[in-house]
Design a protein that fits this description.
Length: about 140
């Protein structure tokens, strides 16, 4: 889905401030999750301080505009626009670059869960490897 063509409905009861619009604009125009610090770097002073961005992200998460996720081996929260579909990511083990996986390799997978009445409601898959740029440096 092209992020620039995505229309997002502003949640009812949430005031449209310059800072919130700025953070939403960055989230709409990226296809990988970002940390609050990365969002701050992309918005500059337009979204206020880093603590303001954290508050905006918490509000957006509570209102269903954004999704908070974590990548393995990292304690930093990552945020992305809630596009109402699930995504998977490949993470470079050298530079920690996050790359969106275009398909879901779990679509044809039927899990064998020992509990008979267990109902799978979702899943999360993360691939670990080395991106092309880092691979060239290692070769």
């Amino acid at each position: 889905m092209d992020a620039k063509k995505l229309s997002v409905f502003w949640p009812e009861g949430v005031k449209k401030t310059r800072q919130r619009r700025c953070v939403l604009s960055v989230l709409k125009n990226t296809d990988t999750p970002l940390t609050a610090a990365e969002l701050y770097g992309r918005t500059g002073k337009d979204a206020g301080s880093l603590s303001t961005i954290y508050r905006i992200l918490e509000l957006f998460t509570q209102k269903g505009l954004a999704v908070r996720t974590f990548i393995l081996d990292s304690d930093a929260a990552l945020y992305e626009l809630d596009r109402h579909d699930h995504k998977h990511y490949a993470v470079c083990m050298v530079c920690h670059k996050i790359i969106a996986v275009k398909n879901c390799p779990m679509e044809a997978f039927t899990p064998d869960v020992k509990e008979d009445n267990f109902h799978v409601m979702g899943h999360k898959l993360e691939l670990q490897g080395i991106c092309g740029e880092c691979y060239k440096k290692l070769a």
